[in-house]
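R.M. (postdoc): so does anyone remember the format we settled on? I'll just put the structure tokens first.
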């Protein structure tokens, strides 16, 4: 039995737009709720969310049987983190702060079994092989792992063409918040200078035959990036969605109270 097909990787290769959402609760029940919302992909955020390998595994369990594909963002592109994440069952990883082609190549190697990479062979006893039931996993998994790297600094943008030339990088995700800060506009993602750089980056990524991704918190932003050619676009963060909706409901309900 071979490794399961990665439908998200296949969709990116076919340039079929995928709409996603960030998950920052670090909780399996919240993740299960998010699988009912219809998003094509959901990010299990191990960089800024309160996650460890156990909570990531719990969320992978509830996402696996659904149509919402799990994209796991690791805290950093360390080999051991990627190994644990893949053995837990992730097929798609998102690696932050990749500034050079050398870093990107190292991420790819960490996600592939030898002779193409350095991923450890312990998966036979792990969740990823259904605890040994997927006997051909090691010989077929490399083709199904989707590697996404984040470009979120001026250095990454300067080295973008070299990063795009790395075999095994399936897509590049533009990190607009960190990029805007590094460009001297912290908190101002809409600064014209920042948007110009983002538009140019998306154009270069798609021209290189890779998938371009980004996070935006507005439908207007999503349309802009999709029109530019971005393939995987996240349009919200679960914690922000809950907070904004709850604040609005509280405010509107209190407005019903008659004035004294």
């Amino acid at each position: 039995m071979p490794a399961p097909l990665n439908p998200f990787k296949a969709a990116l290769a076919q340039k079929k737009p995928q709409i996603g959402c960030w998950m920052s609760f670090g909780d399996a029940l919240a993740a299960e709720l998010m699988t009912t919302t219809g998003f094509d992909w959901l990010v299990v955020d191990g960089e800024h969310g309160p996650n460890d390998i156990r909570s990531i595994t719990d969320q992978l369990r509830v996402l696996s049987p659904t149509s919402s594909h799990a994209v796991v963002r690791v805290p950093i592109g360390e080999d051991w983190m990627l190994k644990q994440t893949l053995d837990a069952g992730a097929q798609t990883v998102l690696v932050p702060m990749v500034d050079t082609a050398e870093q990107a190549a190292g991420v790819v190697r960490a996600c592939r079994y030898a002779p193409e990479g350095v991923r450890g062979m312990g998966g036979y006893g792990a969740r990823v092989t259904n605890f040994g039931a997927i006997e051909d996993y090691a010989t077929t998994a490399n083709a199904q792992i989707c590697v996404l790297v984040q470009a979120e600094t001026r250095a990454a943008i300067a080295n973008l063409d070299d990063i795009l030339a790395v075999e095994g990088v399936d897509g590049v995700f533009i990190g607009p918040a960190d990029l805007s800060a590094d460009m001297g506009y912290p908190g101002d993602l809409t600064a014209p200078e920042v948007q110009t750089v983002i538009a140019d980056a998306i154009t270069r990524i798609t021209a290189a035959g890779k998938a371009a991704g980004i996070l935006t918190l507005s439908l207007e932003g999503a349309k802009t990036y999709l029109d530019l050619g971005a393939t995987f676009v996240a349009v919200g963060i679960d914690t922000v969605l809950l907070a904004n909706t709850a604040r609005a409901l509280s405010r509107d309900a209190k407005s019903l109270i008659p004035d004294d």
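R.M.: ...and that's the designed sequence above, right after the tokens. Also worth knowing: DSSP finds twelve helices and eight strands in the chain. The chain has a mean pLDDT of 97.
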